[in-house]
Amino acid sequence: MFRQTVYETDRLWLKILKPNYCRQVLDYYKRNHDFLQEWEPQRPKDFYTLSYQKRQLSYEYRMFKERKLIRFWILKKEDNKLIGNICLSNIIMGNFRSCYMGYKLDCDEINKGYMTEAIKKVLDIMFNEYGLHRIEVNVMPRNIRSLKVMKKLNFEEEGYSRRYLEINGKWEDHVHFAIYEDSFNQFFNTKNTKNRGW
Fold it and tell me: Superfamily for 6-188?
């Protein structure tokens, strides 16, 4: 079944990118190298190359078609600048209908509400178009900006794990958050009118 690859919010485009966007993606990662390093796993040696990013976009587009992973790249409408992404991974349907979500934003675009705006749209897509039941996010306790986003979007805090993920060469504690289809739609008064499921 064909799935939409471009969505919009008031200020943003959310796009599932093909390999021809590898230059824009590489530029995003290069200009945010220092900013993102604290929050992400250590990168392969060839990560900051066009060939790597082209392969990665090709892989992720294939995973999108296979219904296993979706990465929405965030672009500003005003200048079409690529400023981050939201990734839904480990998508499992059936009687589970759940996934993990991670996200990252350009260092020059923080504290402008872009990530909250983008995640709200992605949640609407995943719950009301794809038919998911639950989306989980894991946040390091010192990541104050992400904790604020979780609160704004009505995520429920469900637990705490020590040394949960290896980030930048160190095993880091994480707080577990989740949001559910019914609570999202109730909180944001979202009407469930789209064709649902895969």
Answer: Gcn5-related N-acetyltransferase (GNAT) (3.40.630.30)
